């Protein structure tokens, strides 16, 4: 049985929940297909991504995600404003930071402990300029955030 981890009901905030167990090949491929469809819309969006308690992406899937983002970097830079990662444990936050370092996306990446905080941030982040505008949404009250390398945010 294929699980459907995407939720676009609060568009332009898109939610992706990873399951508690390992993704099958078919499920991972489905995630990339759905991601491609979201990019093909050509509309600004923010992705909220819950790691949960599962194993996340294995090494092969991380590498495929890196290649996917390289292949589609223009569409991603033009439409995806930011990613909020909801991680409940230090291990999962560290794993997420490693994935961000590997992928090096052209948008801001923030870590959150809960959905409510991430959703508030996402509503602001979706209004950010495209990546080539070098504007990065910042979490209110934060001195810095865990974002990827790239152009600096204006201060």
Topology (SSEs and partners):
Elements: E1 6-10, E2 13-17, H1 25-40, E3 45-50, H2 59-71, H3 73-79, E4 80-86, H4 90-103, E5 108-112, H5 115-125
Low-confidence stretches: 133-155
Quick one: how many beta strands?
A: 5
* Distance between the amino and carboxyl termini: 48 Å
- How many structural domains in the coordinates? 1
Which assembly state applies to the chains in this document?
single chain
- The CATH architecture can be named as 2-Layer Sandwich
User: How large is the radius of gyration?
Assistant: 14 Å
Structural class by SSE content: alpha/beta
**What is the residue-averaged pLDDT?**
79
- CATH topology, by name, is Transcription Regulator spoIIAA
Could you state the order of secondary-structure elements as H and E? Answer: EEHEHHEHEH
Helix content: 25-40%
Report the principal-axis shape: globular
The largest sheet is: 5 strands, mixed
Give the amount of beta strand, in percent: 15-25%
